[in-house]
Amino acid sequence: MDASHMGNDIEQVLITEEEIQAKLAELATQIWAEYEGKDLLLVGVLKGAVMVMADFMRHLPGTVPMDWMAVSSYGSGTKSSGVVRILKDLDSDISGKHVLIVEDIIDSGLTLSWIRSNLESRSPASVEILTLLRKPEAAKVEIDTKWVGFDIPNEFVVGYGLDFAEQYRNLREIVTLAPHVYS
Ligand code: IMP
Ligand code: MG
């Protein structure tokens, strides 16, 4: 679906499909140069990163494996607490590998900083982060995010993998929701 299928549930389009693809292509070029010849593994965090992973990895000019984790962060509503439980662990052993975590969004950064230190404890050669979106709050946490697609305002967004109550993940753009959707 695209924004035209949202009726009055949409507030505004923040990032278009074309802007997302152009940014992922640009990041893919930079990241490929950085990892060429290295044993790279892309690690996605379910479910939000599904679209970013699918499109980012197809922009890479060579083959690369992927693996997935699913976590649940204990938190109330739209705020995360940083207390994380692994729902699905990686299939592969990452020791000696250059791990690139592929994420949809960093808000507080609590979830991701937990995931990062969890992965770092498994003796990888390196762990870096690629996130399509980053909110201002993320700047407050000590989380070194090497590659960021877009810095966005502190608003709740959906689309391109991001959901509200599991809806709108299949939206092509990144949009803000009209207030009536939340109430
Ligand atoms: P953090 O631990 O606060 O960084 O939370 C990150 C997770 O919260 C993301 O992986 C998303 O699942 C979710 N999240 C944070 N902001 C948004 C948003 O604006 N829309 C949809 N999900 C979000
Ligand atoms: Mg998520």
Report on the architecture of this protein.
Helices cover 22% and strands 31% of the residues. The protein is built from 3 helices and 9 strands. The strands form 2 sheets. Strands 4-3-2-5-6-7 form a 6-stranded mixed sheet. Strands 1-9-8 form a 3-stranded antiparallel sheet, covered by helices on one side. β2, α2 and β3 form a beta-alpha-beta unit. α1 crosses α2. The longest helix is centred in the N-terminal third of the chain and has 19 residues. The protein starts with 9 loop residues before the first strand and ends in a 6-residue tail after the last strand. The structure holds inosinic acid (IMP) and magnesium ion. Magnesium ion binds next to loops.
Secondary structure topology:
Layout (H helix, E strand, L loop, with lengths): L9 E6 L1 H19 L4 E7 L3 H10 L6 E9 L8 E6 L9 E9 L3 H11 L5 E9 L12 E5 L5 E2 L15 E4 L6
Parallel strand pairs: 2-3, 2-5, 5-6, 6-7
Antiparallel strand pairs: 1-9, 3-4, 8-9
Helix pairs in contact: 1-2
The protein binds inosinic acid and magnesium ion.
Quick recap of the structure?
The chain has 183 residues and is of the alpha/beta class. The protein has helices spanning 17-35, 50-59, 110-120, and strands at residues 10-15, 40-46, 66-74, 83-88, 98-106, 126-134, 147-151, 157-158, 174-177.
Features of the shown structure:
9 strands, three-stranded antiparallel β-sheet, 183 residues, globular, 3 helices, binds inosinic acid, six-stranded mixed β-sheet, single chain, binds magnesium ion, alpha/beta
Q: Tell me the strand percentage band.
A: 25-35%
The overall strand count is 9
Portion of residues within helices: 10-25%
Biggest sheet overview:
6 strands, mixed
Residue windows where pLDDT falls under 50 for at least 5 positions: none
Ligands in the model, by name, code or SMILES, are: inosinic acid, magnesium ion
N-end to C-end Cα span: 23 Å
* Backbone structural class: alpha/beta
Overall mean pLDDT: 93
Described by its quaternary structure, the protein is single chain
- CA radius of gyration: 16 Å
SSE run: EHEHEEEHEEEE
* Net shape: globular
Spatial order of strands in the largest sheet: 4-3-2-5-6-7
Annotation field: number of helices: 3
